[in-house]
Design brief:
Number of strands: 11
Structural class: alpha/beta
Low-confidence stretches: none
Number of domains: 2
CATH class of the largest domain: Alpha Beta
Distance between the termini: 26 Å
Mean pLDDT: 98
Largest sheet: 6 strands, parallel
Strand order of the largest sheet: 2-1-3-4-5-11
Bound molecules: NADPH dihydro-nicotinamide-adenine-dinucleotide phosphate, the ligand O=C(O)C1=N[C@H](C(=O)O)C[C@H](O)C1
Strand content: 15-25%
């Protein structure tokens, strides 16, 4: 039976994934938390999931590479340097990195890309997200993923056209930009809305996570799918066949 190891096992997502594994009868290889060496777990697990913190990614990825164990990276707040490391690791092991493992957001990203491609740059795109008060990164990984999808639909690189937050006398909106707004409060598991604002009309494509089970289900499905895959960087679209 395929066994799964959890980096960040004591966290909200780590605990939700462990509960799901127990409920589904999938083997848990073990977990790591702050101060643990990730290598022993990487050596015994058939696949790994990482829902920890960006500062842990370097060591977690190095352990996965050393043990040649596939890894699903769900941690958000990653930098360009982290993404370069992930690309490098994907030359040796199977890696899937995503800001959102849910079926709903994976499909939403495809719809957003399509809408952005068809509507053209005179339709302004704004992405609004809301999360619980404990979330430490902004914009959320999902908001950035949806922004990437919209930018790709327009044939642009997100980094060239994103506007993250506004305040003060910022001037009029520049055509073709993608704006991000982040709200934090309470226990919200994750709400995302992509607004396409045209002249006299708006299209809003959104997703609301009612709990963390949806992320856990996607992460476990991705890990089981990845377990026997050769080296490469894979996507949730591939896992879910979307
Ligand atoms: N891709 C997706 O679908 C989803 C992604 N996420 C992302 O997953 C991450 C975790 O979220 P969440 O569970 O809510 O956050 P938590 O803060 O609840 O969990 C993170 C856990 O990682 C632990 N940790 C810190 N350093 C290390 C380390 N070196 N090795 C292993 N574990 C470590 C933390 O310990 P301590 O608290 O003691 O520091 C904490 O228990 C976030 O980046 C979040 O945005 C969340 C939901 C879905
Ligand atoms: O921190 C969270 O909770 C979540 N993080 C991910 C993100 O940054 O988008 C996914 C989900 O929205 C919950």
């Amino acid at each position: 039976m395929t066994s799964i190891g959890i980096f960040g096992s004591a966290g909200r997502m780590g605990r939700t994934i462990a509960d799901l594994l127990a409920a589904e009868g999938v083997a848990l290889a073990g977990g790591t938390d702050v101060g643990d060496d990730p290598l022993p777990l990487a050596q015994i697990a058939d696949a790994l999931v990482d829902f920890s913190i960006p500062a842990a990614l370097d060591a977690n990825l190095a352990a996965a590479r050393a043990a040649r164990t596939p890894i699903v990276i769900g941690t958000t707040g990653l930098s360009d340097a982290h993404h370069a490391l992930i690309d490098e690791a994907a030359r040796e092991i199977a890696v899937l990195q995503t800001g959102n493992t849910s079926l709903g957001v994976t499909l939403l990203a495809t719809l957003v890309r399509e809408a952005a491609a068809r509507l053209g740059p005179d339709w302004d795109i704004e992405i609004v997200e809301m999360h619980h008060r404990y979330k430490v990164d902004a914009p959320s990984g999902t908001a950035l993923l949806l922004g990437e999808a919209a930018a790709t639909g327009r044939g642009e690189a997100l980094g060239d056209i994103s506007v993250i937050g506004r305040g003060g006398l910022v001037g009029q909106r520049s055509e073709g930009t993608i704006g991000f707004a982040s709200l934090r409060g309470g226990s919200v598991a994750g709400d995302h809305q992509v607004v396409f604002a045209g002249q006299g009309e708006r299209i809003e494509l959104g997703h609301r996570a009612e709990n963390r089970d949806i992320f856990a289900r996607g992460a476990v499905r991705a890990a089981l799918w990845l377990a026997d895959k050769p080296a490469g960087r894979y996507t949730m679209q591939q896992v879910l066949g979307l």
